[in-house]
Model the fold of this input.
Amino acid sequence: MPDAPAVPTRARILVLALLVLVTLVGYADRQVLALLKPVLDRELGWTASDYATISSGFQLAVAIGFLGAGWLVDRFGPRMALGVGLVGWSLCAVLHAAARSVTQFLVLRTGLGLFESVGTPAMMAAVSATFRADERGRVIGFLNAAPNLAAMLTPLLVGLLFPLVGWTGTVAIIGGSGFLCALAWMLVPLRRPTPDRVAADPTVAARPADRHMLARVTAAFALSKLLTDPVWWFMLFWLPDLLHHRFGLDVAQLGLPLAAAYGCAAAGSLLGGFLPHRLARGGDPEPARRRVMAVAAACVLPVPLVLVCSSLAAGVALVGLALAAHQFFAANLFGFASERVPAAHVGRVTSIGAFCGNLGGAIILRAAGGSALLPVFGYCALAYLAAWCVFSLLVPLRRLRRADGLDA
Done:
């Protein structure tokens, strides 16, 4: 078992708590515009195409930002990279309150996306630097649950703030909370990531087989994110609008249905982080991981039925099941990457995967601006089975066991 990092237990808990808090703030900044869309449609005259342009522009900016974010994290460390990113994206989020035109919103969302791109690789680098390898799957499960908690709490918070301070005050208050997170993050005790045994030993790291395996792991992670992350981004940006038009819910009524759907997603994330190691009973978690990822892929298949069901409860249940399956799948992708990628490469590998996932998100958000949602939901239903097949082909279990020096 890997040695525990030289970080006291209390400090490790603090790091995890702050990473969860930063994730909550980041996803609240992303979601608030989706929740206020019916109001902005009415007050600013937005069309579905305008909203698609703004949301897809944000996703494209995040994707482009990931091209350099991993290098910045590996170069300057997660403390500085995430601290600067937090200040930048909080400033952009607050300035949304002054925007009025589609162009102004697009510029600010682009800035928000560029600064937020540092978040994922910095958090993964912080996890690798702070927690043992056998702890990382569970920690990532908690971190993957945070966006769902944000998706549950943000509609309730918006429902409380909007009647009191309007949409401008709502986005300013939620965006400004990031400055407090940045201050707390810069004070947290955090060590720089150090290369693990494989990365530190030049005779091991230079073996062609190891370089080849790292390339296959990176490709499997990146392509799986490219295929599956668009589903999450589509749901995050378009689900409030879908519930508004399909079931007649207004801003104040969206809170509970969205909280229920994303509550299912949070449960899926926590379960995804724990279950493979639990089923492995101290052994190799990889066979169990692949089985449960296949089950998760099958659970997304019924999601297009939300377009034809007349019951709000049934629609929320279908979406909740799909979101839970997504987070279950994603937690295992990140758990796989954190266990198979040397610590010195975590930032870059995570950035490559996040770039692919956000690029896919930009494409699907642009496509959702059209009038026909059935093709988009059809893609959502099949994305995880396709990703599971790609993942299994690129890093078959026998190759991993051979790389670990085990019998196939």
Notes: The radius of gyration is 20 Å. Confidence is low (pLDDT under 50) at residues 1-5, 195-208.
